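note to self: the first set is below, dont mix up w the second
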Amino acid sequence: MKITVTGLRGIPGIQGGIETHCEELYPRLVKLGCDVTLLRRKPFIRETPPFTSWKGVKLKDMNAPTRMGVEALVHTLKGVWHAFRTRAEILHIHAIGPSVAVPFARLLGLRVVVTHHGPDYNRLKWGPFARFILRTGERFAAWWADDIIVISTVIRDLLRDRYGRTAGVHLIYNGVNRPEPASSTDYIRSLGLTPGKYILAVGRFVEEKNFDKLVRACATMSLPEDCRLAIAGAADHPTPYSDALAKRATDSGAVLAGMIKGASLHELYTHARLFVLPSSHEGLPFTLLEAMSYRLDVLVSDIPAHSAVNLPPDCYFHCGEGDIVPALCKAMEAKLSNPPATREYDLSPYDWDTIARQTLDVYSTRSEMASLEMRNK
């Protein structure tokens, strides 16, 4: 089965939840017999020379503008044309912004699967026009995609309630691997951190993550001795917000690890005292699933996407319309006042091998329907 994938920046090692999703999913689909070509955006490619394949996934690099809000649309339109020219059996578009291209793909006769990773128009960084495009992409996906994969019950219910779309909607979660704890502490000690004595946050420097409020909370409250805040992440594009966040974090004594992966991130997760994600908007965050896989104690905002994970009540704090810092401080103080504890979470719904088989089932059903249509013509 010939699959073309677009809507993301690329793989491997490129920051972003969708990118992590695809990095885990598509090598598994190749092993299940799929012929996968993933289209990457050239401005985000760092290998020299660029990869042409990775773990069996074919990689095709295409030019895209670097202007935020435009790059995804232009790249996806090019990707649709590429899928048409190469006779892809399935075009898989990730995210609702790129889904603006769904009608174009359908006009060309392509079979389209969309993965809805979350209502991105709720992200604070977007202006009115960008939000209009994102809502339009969601609408086009709901109206015209052959199948829609949703990563949470919250998104499934949104499609049902807003668009009346229930047919061809498939709930397939994000996944997570089960790691072995890191024995080394060299990296975290190089950052000035002590094992078991730091609060960890991981993610991009965008407003809806509320990392600025986490920095303010840690500066306001009385942390245990030698306890520090460490943030692993960066901005895709420098913005006034990301610059201000970095300065505030540095001035307050927080540790900024930058955008890291692999062994360094493995160490940070392994030895953290508490993982905190105070977001005002998420789809189904990989960083939370990763923290759960490391059996960390976690504290997250009570937004619907987090609540759908069904964590114990003490793992949530209220994220209302006003200043969340007092509630965040109170919840962190309660967590840190208790002895460190290893937590056990049910990760069975988030197994990547199961997710790959579920995705293949969506492809196979769509492919069988296309074959029937061809025979009936």
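second set (the one i keep forgetting abt)
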Amino acid sequence: MKIGRNEPCWCGSGKKYKACHMAFDDKIEVICNKNKKITRPTPDMIKTPEQLDGIRRAGEINSKILDAVAEHVKEGVSTGELDRIVAEKTKELGGIPAPLNYEGFPKSVCTSINDVVCHGIPDDNRFLEDGDIVNIDCTTIYEGYYGDASRMFMIGDVDPLWVKLVEVTKECLDEAVKIAQPWTTLGDFGYLINKRASDNGFSVVREIGGHGCGVDFHEDPWVPHIGKPDSGCLIVPGMSFTIEPMINVGKPNVYCDSDDGWTIYTDDGSPSAQWEYHLIITENGNEIVSC
């Protein structure tokens, strides 16, 4: 429904539409009318300044928790112990571990080792071993807002191909962050991620992507890590989402463990790596709020 110039803005600021988001919406309209492959962000994807401040605080706490657990990621430690460290540090900092009991997930953090793409469940009987690669994915609720990020770790003497996988995945993320600017599209950096991975002989997981995050754990937009330039959702100031490419040594196909309903594995048993940043899109670029 069209909003009148003198009506209250849809964002809830209390200002008249003409003095708030009218020019912003007009710019979106021009861009999307010019290129039908670009889709409009919905109003709920665009956060208020107050929400963005809350997301920043949650992201800062989340990064501190990742810093704390990183000190303990080494050969011989169990992923169950890493989960307890996350739970204790989260409580100490006044947060809540978002994964715990989320749609039945039983732990406070995800620990994904080798051929586990994501959503690995911590286990007291799974000890990190020489040669493993592991992703620690942490999401924290703080004062009602969410921060989300993950890091890769290499344990001991890691196969050189696996080392390259971890490094290239990080390069894919860092290059995507450079491209994720206001008034570009999700397809712009999705294309770049897929190209960088493919150029190095790796493949990108298609079924699982990043997501809007901040007011809730998983929000729109869904963020694919493949794409075409000048296509997909338009990126605009006020958006808050994760970029978290999952890159495989082998084929991109994955499957979910039917027993636990959570753990995602590569279909061919090849190793997978993932790095994740949580971004806010600003007027002049972007801001990494958790990494």
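remember for set 2: The radius of gyration is 20 Å.
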